[in-house]
Amino acid sequence: MIKFEHVGLRYGVGPEVLSDINFTLEPGSFHFLTGPSGAGKTSLMTLMYLGRKPTRGLVSMFEQNINDMSRAQLGALRQKIGVVFQEFRLLPHLSAFDNVALPMRITGHSESEVKSNVDELLEWVGLGDYKNALPLTLSGGQQQRVAIARAVIARPKLLLADEPTGNLDDDIGFRLMHLFEQLNRMGTTIVIATHSQYIMERFGHPRLVLEDGRLYMHDNANWVQKNIEGVY
Length: 232
Fold this sequence. Notes:
The chain has helices spanning 41-48, 71-78, 96-106, 111-124, 140-152, 170-185, 197-203; strands spanning 2-10, 16-25, 30-34, 56-61, 64-65, 81-84, 158-162, 189-193, 207-211, 214-218, 223-224. The strands form 2 sheets. Strands 6-7-8-3-9-10-11 form a 7-stranded mixed beta sheet, sandwiched between helices. Strand 10 (214-218) and strand 11 (223-224) form a beta hairpin. The chain has a single domain (2-224), classed as Rossmann fold (3-Layer(aba) Sandwich), CATH 3.40.50.300. It has 7 helices and 11 strands. Helices cover 33% and strands 25% of the residues.
């Protein structure tokens, strides 16, 4: 699903923010991505959702080398990826319903399919009564749930989520984690960036740990040496 080989990333002429990253994530795996602030988590997520190409090294996604891909080819590949950003990135002129429906409409589903799926998912995330609300009228936690619903609605092959439970109470956070696990059981590969030790310990998936731009692996029992090839 994802393979990084000796990947480095720098912005401009500054020092590398990611250094010699090597790992492989198999289809259907579920990992937490963690580490201290400034360790490079957002940069690594950016590479994984094809928002940027590496400065050096090789990144393969869905068995394709992305380094030489055109913008159009990258755009087509992104349709297989669902992303939950920390800043939500909802379209302010669209209702909660229409924001969530967007991925299904882009991929050509019928309106009857869209309505059925979006209504069901908004109920699941506790926003059934807010489907006509514009994002700016919703709280931060409600906007986050809309963003999560939009990311999972089309059942992506890969789901990347940056602190998806950060603004939510424990009950909603656990409910959404169970939604992610259900999606994972259906075959979606999932990577969730989080600082929450409680969430990581409660759900027990292996961890990708970034420290000073270097990658380590934690399987909840033993530390594994950095820069592992074939992580899980």
